[in-house]
Every structure is written in C-alpha cells, then in structure tokens.
Amino acid sequence: MSVVLLVVVGGCACVMWASRGGPPWSRAVARATLAAGEPVRASGRSGGNRGRGGDADD
Fold first, then answer.
1. Which candidate, 12, 29, 37, 47, has a CA 20 to 30 Å from the CA of 23?
2. How far is Cα 23 from Cα 55, in angstroms, rounded to an integer?
3. From its phi and psi, is residue 23 left (phi > 0), alpha (psi between -120 and 50) or beta?
4. 52 versus 2: which is more confidently predicted?
C-alpha cells in the first residue's frame, strides 16, 4: 500500500513540476499520471447528484 501511495505522490509532484517547466522526463511522467487518473475523474463525474449535500426539501 505504501508503494502505491509513493507512486501517486510522485506522479502528482511530477505534474506540478512539469507545469512549472521541468525536465522532459517529468513531463512524460506527468502525462502518464494524468492519463491514469482520467478514469478516476470520469467515474466521479458520472455520479449524478452524489456528494452535493442534503435533501432538496430541508
């Protein structure tokens, strides 16, 4: 589990570093990280009204 967390944190760091003009390898890692995260972001969007808080007739 700690290895997965390390990879995720490292990927996020590369995304931030690449956005600030890091070396070419960091841009490649950032692209891979963003591509790997796309299914996670897409599944969060398809939840409809989930996570918007409370009932409509409060």
1. 37
2. 48
3. beta
4. 2
Positive/negative CA dihedral, 19, 33, 5, 40? positive
Q: Give the pTM.
A: 0.62
pLDDT band at 28 (very low <50, low <70, confident <90, very high): very high
Q: SS3 for 13?
A: helix
Q: 18, 14, 12, 19: which is closest to 40 by C-alpha?
A: 12
CA distance 43 to 12: 19
Write the CA distances from 28 to 34, 35, 43, 53, integer angstroms.
10, 11, 24, 38
